[in-house]
UniProtKB/TrEMBL annotation:
Location of the Carbohydrate kinase FGGY N-terminal domain: 213-362
Name the record gives this protein: Xylulose kinase
Originating species: Linnemannia elongata AG-77
Superkingdom in the source lineage: Eukaryota
Enzyme Commission number, as recorded: 2.7.1.17
Carbohydrate kinase FGGY C-terminal domain mapped to chain residues: 517-603
Gene3D superfamilies, A to Z: 3.30.420.40
UniProt xrefs under PANTHER family: SUGAR KINASE, XYLULOSE KINASE
Length: 666
């Protein structure tokens, strides 16, 4: 019996199929969507809603178990011997997985001839480095039927055999270099514009360099949507330029994992998607083009002086990156003849631009502007679909947001708060953005509190949470921060508890019934959930005044779509609704549509929306900004959980104190 294959439901043999690929960290998945019998399936040029889509089948290749020769653990190689933080994945493993999953589909009798279009998603930030040998490999796939497999064909097509991926944290120095470079550029601009103050004027001596870097962080966030992160692609490329310059020089093209996968299918270099590309620290998310200052700096290995003009140095990185699909909707090409002859695909199967896994999930959930997608998984992630990019808008004459008299940033400033979130371009809406907030301490942190205070039992954890939510003071008025791993923001590690604004080792120590372990347990359970959701609400408020607003509903958010393992916990979702003051809909309970809400589903849906018509290289739908189906009601799918606004007011009133205590940790 095949592993990783879901059975095919009864369907009409002539119904068109749409493939969504998802190359994640641990597996490659193909999810197939078809239209229902009563849908508009026979009219492929229809601009109707996609409510008629349903799961036809899905197929998966697990890297560790099904490709054991690559010796990965969790789909990756952690290179302890190369220094702390180096994490990669073998490129040829991904290549082989693509062939293996199609072979699995063939053995299952999959009807390849019914496929109309393909799109895909992949883990974000990872990069693939093509050699000149890629040209010959592509020619082989486009030519007459070849007996060679994909691994044999592409064995000499890459200059870097082990691709750095999103888990890699080895580029701290490169991140700092990028930030300092942009900080110096901004400081120089201020001097030349006649600004009355600069960082150099505001801070002196050793403090100036720190002030310059903080200025660079803010400038980088303003241009690319995020401050420098080790996992982002820009710093990873800079590391290769610095440590292996000959490898960089011999690299013909650099792809993201998503565009790499699309390139294999069309036998040509596919464009980088605008949403995935905005997770690189290289793309100007306002112009949707590569930033020339950053690409030039990285191309020169960080040796460009801030006063150097663009005309004085070469810049081959932009050529290596290639074009950006600013629309996210382009048909990159048709499936190459290798796949057509080997598996029986039609010769005109269209391949729509592949994107990152987070943007693909937005497509899967059919999010509208104002929707916040909250994933309650290993890490807690919030994606807010918005029409604004909350840039920092640095004032030439105001250094309060840059550095204090110690050369340090005020942790409570609006600039500091904006650096705790990032922005991606929307995958298909030209005027939309996705505000991204990620907390490293998510479900695993809740599990540790469960183990400590609920006897490792989720039912008891829920009971404590339910009882604590019914209490007037929630966690007894206490505030807890549970950072078992070093958090992204605030960048600290440890467990911190406060009662009445005073730090304590444990809740309830000053009470007469301090031995009441049940109350103490409930206080900790409620405190971790409250603090996680309060932090999420504050970060999702795009400006400081909005974060501390007295408005009950979270500014800019009309509804929360909850996904992830904990999204089936209605007690937890009730608290989430109470904190944000908006309805919450669980998107993880639709057992009639396997894979619904996943990145693979979003990719297949994208293939359906934009791969049904249009010529190669052009957008495949009329030029509107509709990126989703009809506006679903709050109660569609599963019943919406409505907020208790009396509880919401309690949490809104606690925001200033929460921010004050959070600042103490820094």
């Amino acid at each position: 019996m095949e592993h990783g294959h879901s059975p095919k439901p009864p369907s009409t043999p002539t119904q068109p199929l749409f493939l969504g690929l998802d190359l994640s960290t641990q597996q490659l998945k193909v999810l197939v969507l078809e239209q229902r019998d009563n849908s508009t399936s026979n009219n492929l040029n229809s601009d109707d809603d996609d409510d008629g889509l349903r799961t036809h089948s899905s197929f998966t290749i697990h890297f560790d178990s099904e490709l054991p020769l690559y010796r990965t653990r969790g789909g990756v190689h952690a290179h302890a011997q190369q220094g702390s933080g180096v994490v990669t994945a073998p490129v040829l493993m991904w290549v082989e997985a693509l062939e293996r999953v199609f072979e699995k589909m063939k053995r299952a009798g999959f009807p390849f001839d019914r496929v109309i279009s393909i799109s895909g998603a992949a883990q974000q930030h990872g990069s693939v480095y093509w050699s000149s040998g890629a040209t010959q490999a592509f020619e082989t796939l486009r030519g007459p039927s070849s007996e060679s497999g994909l691994v044999e064909t592409f064995k000499d097509a890459f200059t870097v055999e082990e691709s750095p991926i999103w888990q890699d944290t080895s580029t701290t120095s490169q991140c700092e270099e990028m930030e300092v470079f942009l900080g110096k550029l901004e400081n120089l601009r201020r001097r030349r514009s006649g600004a009355t103050t600069t960082v150099a004027d505001a801070v002196a001596g050793e403090k100036e360099e720190k002030g310059i870097r903080l200025l660079g962080q803010q400038r980088l966030a303003e241009v690319t949507g995020s401050r420098a992160y080790e996992r982002f692609t820009g710093s990873q490329i800079l590391k290769i330029v610095q440590k292996s310059p000959e490898v960089y020089r011999s690299t013909k093209r650099i792809s993201l994992v998503s565009s790499f996968l699309a390139s294999l299918l069309i036998a040509n270099f596919a464009a980088i998607d605008v949403a995935d590309g905005s997770g690189m620290n290289l793309l100007d998310i306002r112009t949707k083009t590569w930033d020339p200052a950053l690409t030039r700096f990285i191309d020169q290995g960080g040796r460009v002086d801030e006063s150097t003009t663009a005309a004085e140095v070469s810049n081959s990185l932009e050529d290596k990156l290639g074009e950006v699909d600013a629309s996210g909707r382009k048909i990159q090409g048709v499936l190459s003849s290798w796949f057509v002859s080997r598996y029986g695909f039609s010769s005109d199967v269209k391949v729509v631009t592949f994107t990152g896994d987070n943007p693909a999930t937005v497509m899967a959930l059919r999010a509208e502007r104002g929707d916040a997608m909250v994933s309650l998984g290993t890490s807690d992630t919030l994606l807010l679909y918005t029409d604004t990019h909350a840039s920092i808008n640095l004032s030439d004459n105001d250094n309060s947001a840059i550095a204090n008299d110690k050369g340090e940033q005020d942790a409570n400033s609006s600039a500091a708060k904006l650096l705790s979130v990032g922005y991606l371009c929307h995958p298909v809406d030209p005027n939309g953005y996705l505000m991204l907030y990620c907390a490293k301490n998510g479900s695993l942190a809740r599990e540790q509190v469960r183990d400590l205070y609920a006897d490792s039992n989720w039912d008891r954890f829920d009971q404590h949470l339910r009882e604590g939510m019914m209490e007037e003071g929630g966690s007894g008025g206490g505030v807890g921060f549970y950072f078992f791993d070093r958090e992204i923001w605030p960048p600290v590690q440890g467990v911190y508890r406060f009662e009445n604004g005073v730090a304590v080792d444990e809740f309830g120590q000053q009470d007469a019934d301090a031995n009441d372990s049940a109350k103490r347990a409930a206080a900790n359970v409620v405190a971790i959930c409250e603090s996680q959701f309060l932090a999420m609400r504050i970060r999702s408020s795009q400006r400081e005044e909005a974060a501390s607003s007295s408005s009950l509903n979270s500014p800019g958010i009309s509804r929360i779509l909850a996904t992830g393992g904990a999204s089936s916990n209605r007690v937890l979702l009730q608290l989430l609704a109470n904190v944000f003051g908006v309805p919450v809909v669980s998107m993880g309970t639709d057992d009639q549509q396997p894979g619904a809400g996943s990145a693979a589903w979003g990719a297949a849906r994208k293939a359906y929306l934009y791969g049904r018509q249009g010529a190669v290289g052009s957008t495949s739908r009329k030029d509107d900004d509709r990126d989703s189906g009809r506006r679903r009601s709050n109660s569609e799918g599963s019943a919406a959980i409505l907020p208790d606004l009396a509880q919401t007011k309690k949490y809104v009133d606690r925001i200033p104190e929460f921010l004050r205590l959070e600042a103490i940790l820094l």
